[in-house]
Design a protein that fits this description.
The structure is a single chain. This protein is α/β, with parallel strands linked by helices. 51% of the residues lie in helices and 13% in strands. The chain is built from 20 helices and eleven strands. The longest helix has 31 residues, at 354-384. The strands form three sheets. Strands 2-3-4-1-5 form a five-stranded parallel sheet, sandwiched between helices. The protein has a four-stranded mixed sheet with strand order 8-9-10-11, with helices on both faces. Strands 6-7 form a two-stranded antiparallel sheet.
């Protein structure tokens, strides 16, 4: 059996190895903010929480930001508190050369001594998988609150914490009944790679890439760093190769949905999985979701939106948020893919029919990627920063729909867009009529300069 210390070193080595396998991309803003926070910590204590879904690269980001500086890195593994403290004291001795901390059997003892140390010397402490303190000793959070409140005014500590279970991290810091509620001084949310970054990655590792390659990378990974890295490390850049890697025995993608989400959802994961599967396969209104799942899902949908950040309400532009015209969509491209194909056809995987699953993905890829293409262009519009509104529109009958509408209130301009994989399938005359229906129904954009535009693979 592997020792906890060996597992800790293996995890750290794996994190550092990622820089060798695929160089570090993007995150200029996040790194700049982390360094600014560190500078502020030289005058007053800083407590930063770094959030983001699993595999997004939170740990790699923080280690990259401080790669040229000495920081304490505490990884909260699920073991006895005294044993965990032994690991932390070894890290302190190796990084700071301090041996006077003495024996500690509780994290509160270690944290108190660190806060005292930082009164004389500035210090950055990074605690990874912070939420797992709840499994080690739930009183850690209240003890941290007490020590932080007593010492923060005199301590020059740069405390950074992140965790991979989003719901638990939200509860720790956003539930007013919890001891660490509101103690954070800064927050950084790590997002998936933007379209321009995916282009940069492909340009470096696969210069001859096609727009179909770019769309496949976006559709399957959603810009999540770990998944992008897996394709890059395996030199997989074309659609056929991606499908081959995904649909094989022991593929990292097969169990990824369960690994990533079961801990978030706990014992109710079956219901949550059914809801996400319903949305991923096109059952996107509450009534259709409940018909698919076979039970009332209002409370589950609220948690998927507010607690887990996996689902969001999608309403027509300028419609009321409480209207009956609302649809639900998954925020995460990878989960759209995973629930659309892997979870839906898991009975095939149980008998080893990986090749059959690949054939189904090939068969349905055009429709699946067409929806991903629409998301891609929305993300591209958002990245540009040129617009004050980005959304879609459909009427209450559902027979008139506009894929994307972008508008800028400052320049009083708006663009109505239809998205198709192939440009020859775009009907601008039909889009003009849909635009007129929008203007007649909403009475918006009066005095605006309005244009209609087709967007296809050629425009990526």
């Amino acid at each position: 059996m592997q020792s906890p210390k060996w597992l800790f070193r293996k995890r750290l080595f794996r994190t550092l190895f990622l820089y060798i396998a695929m160089r570090f991309f993007d995150r200029t803003y996040e790194i700049g903010k982390l360094l600014d926070i560190k500078q502020k910590s030289l005058e007053t204590a800083q407590f930063t929480i770094v959030t983001g879904r699993r595999r997004i690269g939170k740990t790699s980001l923080i280690l990259k930001a401080f790669e040229n500086e000495t920081i304490l890195y505490f990884f909260v593994s699920r073991k006895a508190e005294a044993e965990l403290c032994d690991d932390f004291l070894i890290e302190i001795q190796q990084k700071l050369g301090v041996i006077s901390f003495g024996r500690a059997t509780s994290f509160s003892q270690v944290f108190d001594q660190i806060m005292q140390y930082a009164k004389n010397k500035p210090l950055t402490l990074f605690i990874d998988e912070f939420q797992d303190f709840a499994r080690v000793n739930k009183s850690v959070f209240s003890e941290m609150q007490r020590i932080w409140d007593i010492n923060k005014n005199d301590s020059r500590i740069n405390l950074i914490v992140c965790g991979s279970v989003n719901s638990m991290m939200n509860n720790i810091f956003r539930n007013e009944k919890e001891p660490l509620f509101g103690r954070q001084t800064q927050e950084i949310s790590v997002k998936p790679f933007a379209p321009s970054v995916l282009k940069e990655i492909l340009s470096e590792y696969h210069p001859g890439y096609s727009n179909d390659d770019l769309l496949a990378l976006y559709a399957f990974t959603g810009g999540v760093a770990k998944y992008v890295e897996h394709f890059v490390d395996n030199k997989v850049f074309a659609l056929d190769d991606m499908l081959r890697v995904i649909c094989q025995r022991d593929s990292v993608f097969i169990n990824e949905g369960k690994i990533t989400l079961i801990e978030e959802f706990g014992k109710d994961y079956g219901t949550y999985f059914s809801i996400l599967s319903a949305i991923a396969t096109g059952h996107n209104t509450r009534a259709k979701i409940e018909e698919f799942v076979g039970k009332e899902v209002g409370g589950y949908l609220t948690k998927l939106d507010s607690d887990f950040g996996l689902v969001r309400k999608n309403i027509p532009l300028f419609d009321k948020p409480t209207g009956n015209n609302m649809k639900y969509i998954l925020n995460d491209n990878f989960f759209v893919f995973w629930f659309r194909f892997v979870y839906k056809y898991d009975y095939m995987l149980e008998i080893g029919a990986y090749d059959k699953l690949r054939q189904i993905m090939e068969r349905d890829y055009a429709v699946f990627s067409g929806l991903a293409l629409e998301k891609y262009f929305r993300a591209k519009f958002m990245e540009s920063g040129d617009y004050t509104r980005i959304g879609g529109w459909w009427n209450r009958k559902g027979d008139v729909e506009i894929d994307i509408i972008v508008a800028d209130e400052l320049s009083e301009t708006a663009i109505f867009c239809e998205v198709k994989r192939q440009p020859q399938k775009i009907d601008l005359a039909l889009l003009e009529s849909r635009k007129d229906a929008f203007l007649k129904t909403t009475h918006q954009f009066k005095g605006y300069k309005i244009d209609v535009k087709g967007l296809s693979l050629e425009d990526m």
